[in-house]
Amino acid sequence: MAMAGTAGTAGKNSRTAWRNWAGNVTAAPARVVAPASVGELQEAVRRAAEDGLRVKAVGTGHSFTAAAATDGVLLRPQALSGILAIDRAAGTVTVAAGTALKDLNRALAAEGLSLTNMGDIMEQTVSGATATGTHGTGRDSASIAAQIRGLELVTADGRLLTCSEKEHPEVFAAARIGLGALGIVTAITFAVEPLFLLTAREEPMRFDRVTAEFEQHVAENEHFEFYWFPHTGNCNTKRNNRSQGPAAPPGAVSAWVEDELLSNGVFQAVNSLGRAFPAAIPSIARVASRALSARTYTDIPYRVFTSPRRVRFVEMEYAVPREHAVEALRELKATVDRSRLRISFPVEVRTAPADDITLSTASGRESAYIAVHMYKGTPYQAYFTAAERILTAHGGRPHWGKVHTRDAEYLARAYPRFGEFTALRDRLDPDRLFGNDYLRRVLGD
Questions:
Q1: DSSP-H helix ranges across 148-245
Q2: Among 39, 147, 429, 432, which lies 20 to 30 A Cα-Cα from 108?
Q3: Residues facing 369 on adjacent strands
Q4: Least confident residue range of 7-16, 366-375, 382-391
Q5: Which residues contact 27 (CB under 8 A, 6 or more apart)?
């Protein structure tokens, strides 16, 4: 998406429509600013305050909520990109906030380095991904934000604040997943390690077996996840574990068939067919769930953890206590089975260890993530409402960047440290310069 202006030239009254990746959120900011330096970003924040406008930074729009939407000043930090420093002795890399994860992963690999864990797509900016709690799956390693060792953010008064476990630790505890409520992140320091190899083992498995053996699979694998195909008893499992090598990536033809043809091309076609003829979805699901075959391959981390995702969808995801995952999933399957819902997207199940980030969905507890999706342009409210009813009954915490209906009253009960976050927000942004309607709902006034 093209930059709509710079700190020096964006007009106060020019309105440029913004739309997120899924197309379910739009905004019409008063002006759009693309700062070329941290100084320009600080000036944009000061000007917004002077003009009585709220200000939000937006990455690539991969959130399904309105977390970044604003009618004030929309900041595009993509010009603030690239690796700023590598400290091999400390095992860290400092990167500008507008850097895309795909660019970071490739640059780290070229330096013989890698993040320990990551999500399954890498289109987001590092600041957008961490601010909303983007995660992959892991027995011992957690979200991208949990790998942060330091960060810099511009606060409401235009100051640049540096945070770590030793410097402003109370801000660091919260700002790693800050929802954009505490300030505008300009740089992030991540823990990294020498580049390693992962062996991925993908295997179809029946729903009853994978749920019965869920804890065993989590315990035996560094990274375990599975997908259940609604209207069927079929799942596809993926186990990623470190390997001594040698590297054995999928062949070019095999990778194209699995990742491009089946996961994107054919998947796009069958979802379009299902949108036009919902009654056909159960039959399509039975065929689609048997299309992916078992395969094993070994490669560097980002080529194993991440996959291209070109079929657009809307998503809801909740983190539940890990011990509740199987029960919640069985309830979801029973609900779909007895309903008239027609679901063409698989349900994704992942795990994370407990972490110490104030508003992390895994804060203080071992967690399992259950994500439900609907193809873009199909009605999703009935399905998501049914799923949300089940997942909240199990103490679920909604992903901050995915569709949900929870408010501050619910979230204050779900997060023991919720008041700690809102008190810090009151101190750093008393006038709600970084506020918007979404933050008002989830954090309160």
A1: 169-175, 207-212, 214-220
A2: 39
A3: 319, 350
A4: 7-16
A5: 17, 18, 66, 69, 70, 71, 74
- Secondary structure (DSSP) of 405-436: ---HHHHHHH-TTHHHHHHHHHHH-TT-TT--
- Sheet containing 234-243: give its strands across: 295-299, 197-206, 234-243, 223-228, 347-352, 367-375, 313-321, 397-398
3-class DSSP state of 28 = coil
pTM of the full structure = 0.91
Q: What is the DSSP letter of 129?
A: H
pLDDT at 5: 33
- Amino acid at site 290: R
Per the CB < 8 A criterion, the answer to whether 321 and 407 are in contact is no
Is there a contact between 254 and 169 (Cβ–Cβ < 8 Å)? no
Q: What is the pLDDT of residue 291?
A: 66
Q: What would the 3-class secondary structure string for 34-73 be?
A: CCCCHHHHHHHHHHHHHCCCCEEECCCCCCCCCCCCCCCE
Q: What is the DSSP string of 322-355?
A: GGGHHHHHHHHHHHHHHS-----SPEEEEEE--B
**Residue 251: other Cβ atoms inside 10 A:** 10
| Dist CA 438 CA 37 (whole Å) | 28
Residue 314 identity (one-letter amino acid):
V
Cα–Cα nearest to 116, from 188, 220, 219, 191: 191
DSSP output for 244-276: ----BPPPHHHHIIIIIIIIIIIHHHHHHHHHH
How many H-runs (helices) and E-runs (strands) does the chain carry?
Answer: 15, 20
> Parallel, antiparallel, or unpaired: how do β-strands 113-114 and 160-164 relate?
unpaired
Percent of the chain residues topping a pLDDT of 70: 91
3-state secondary structure (DSSP) of residue 102: helix
Judging by beta carbons within 10 Å of its beta carbon (0-12, 13-18, 19+), is residue 252 exposed, middle or buried? Answer: exposed
Kindly tell me if the per-residue pLDDT of 249 is higher than 80. yes
Answer with the residue of higher pLDDT: 3 or 439.
439
Question: 93 is written with which tokens?
Answer: 């890399």
